[in-house]
Write a structure and sequence with these properties.
The structure holds two protein chains of two kinds.
Chain A: E1 2-4, E2 10-12, E3 18-19, H1 20-26, E4 34-38, E5 41-43, E6 48-49, E7 54-59
Chain B: E1 21-23, E2 28-30, H1 32-49, E3 58-62, H2 67-83, E4 87-94, H3 101-115, E5 119-123, H4 124-128, H5 132-138, H6 143-161, E6 166-168, H7 173-186, H8 189-192, E7 206-208, H9 216-226, H10 242-256, H11 260-278, E8 285-286, E9 293-294, H12 300-311
Parallel strand pairs in B: 3-4, 3-6, 4-5, 6-7
Antiparallel strand pairs in B: 1-2, 8-9
Chain lengths: 64, 312
């Protein structure tokens, strides 16, 4: 799996099935402060990712 | 995830479509369609329950061009005509923040054109003779405090100029919970019990917050789904604010204790109701400099500007 963080950093995170919440908290990211897409589709934090999924994390911009 | 991990694709509690959002406080999953419908419903409910709108109103919607105010304007333009005979006018305040404001103002202009809503733009430069950037270079002020005071004044002046009966702002549930916590941390009892929504009869233009039951993540998702704003920059001064620290704390509390933010606000509302029974509202006077209603001899904005002129 390929994980793209809000700062543009890309990490290879293996193929094992894991929840989005576990993935994020493992990166010290609070799931409430970000939006996540899997292969371009929005997913909630209790969804799982695995295999060759492309996971992208967007920061919830504050203010405005 | 327990051992023997399986793929999990949560579905919407309303229709069974793939979920895009999980609300841990309410323990429910929502798809794109039901997240949007739910948000619009909660805004309508807030407007109705708190009597925020009446027929004949002229509502000035504070539109910075960021996601909260853009979603607010979009939702109001949808739900107000369905329920009330009221007018909406967008008001943008250009504080003069280089590298940030140009893009968000352009976004605000595009949105109002797309929605066909009249748009009134005022600037710190034209109202106060300086931009926020210049002000902060010349004076050691807290950026968000100074900006907040002057922006509030600019928005009130603009609302008065267009004869608005109320000012709607994009403050959301997270903002409200953070404000309560900040006032506790500061020990600011007066601000904790201040209720601007009920002050219209005392010379202030009523302020309404129709997004106060919606959290920031839902607003961001609504904006993405509806294509309301793209990825916009964050205010360069925001990271230095006390609010930024409280926001991180509040998000952590909400994550570990789902629903805590709603409970903080509900508790605050109960406290306000109790306080109204025992505390008399303060006397309203009028600013000796600009004539605006205020609680002292001069309003906060005129006090700030006068202090700066003395230092110059």
């Amino acid at each position: 799996m390929r994980l793209q963080l809000p700062d543009g950093t890309i990490r290879d995170i293996g193929r094992e099935v894991k929840t989005v919440a576990a993935l994020l908290t493992g990166c010290n990211i609070n799931p409430l402060e970000v939006i996540v897409t899997k292969n371009g589709r929005l997913i909630p934090e209790d969804a799982t990712v695995s295999g060759n999924d492309e996971v992208r994390v967007f920061l919830v911009a504050h203010g405005g | 995830m327990p051992a023997g991990k399986k793929e999990c694709i949560p579905t919407c509690d309303n229709c069974g479509d793939p979920a895009i959002f999980f609300d841990p406080g309410l323990q429910r999953h929502l798809c794109e369609r039901h997240l949007c419908l739910g948000l619009e419903h909660r805004v309508t409910r807030a407007l109705t329950r708190h009597n925020m709108v009446s027929d004949g109103d002229r509502i000035a919607v504070g539109l910075s061009g960021g996601k909260d105010s853009s979603v607010l304007l979009s939702v109001l333009s949808l739900v107000i005509p369905e329920h009330w005979d009221a007018e909406i006018i967008a008001v943008t305040v250009d504080e003069g923040i280089a590298g940030y404001r140009e893009e968000t103002i352009q976004s605000a202009v595009s949105l109002t054109q797309q929605l066909g809503i009249p748009h009134h733009i005022v600037s710190f430069q034209s109202l106060f003779g300086t931009t926020l950037d210049s002000l902060l270079i010349a004076h050691p002020l807290r950026a968000c405090t100074a900006c907040g005071i002057l922006r509030k004044k600019a928005l009130s002046d603009a609302a008065r100029e267009i004869a608005a009966t109320s000012i709607a702002t994009g403050h959301n549930l997270d903002d409200a919970a953070q404000s309560v916590l900040m006032n506790y941390f500061r020990g600011d009892f007066e601000r904790l019990l201040r209720d601007s929504s009920s002050r219209e009869e005392r010379g202030f233009i009523r302020r309404i917050k129709p997004l106060h039951e919606v959290n920031e993540k839902e607003i961001t998702l609504y904006s993405m789904i509806k294509g309301i704003t793209g990825l916009l920059p964050e205010c360069p001064y925001a990271t230095t604010a006390f609010r930024a620290e409280v926001r991180t704390l509040q998000a952590a509390i909400e994550y570990h204790y789902p629903g805590a933010s709603r409970r903080i606000i509900t508790g605050q509302e109960s406290l306000n109701e109790q306080a109204k029974k025992t505390i008399r509202p303060g006397t309203v006077s009028y600013c000796a400099s600009c004539g605006d209603p205020c609680s002292g001899p001069v309003c906060q904005a005129c006090g700030l500007l006068a202090g700066l002129n003395k230092r110059d």
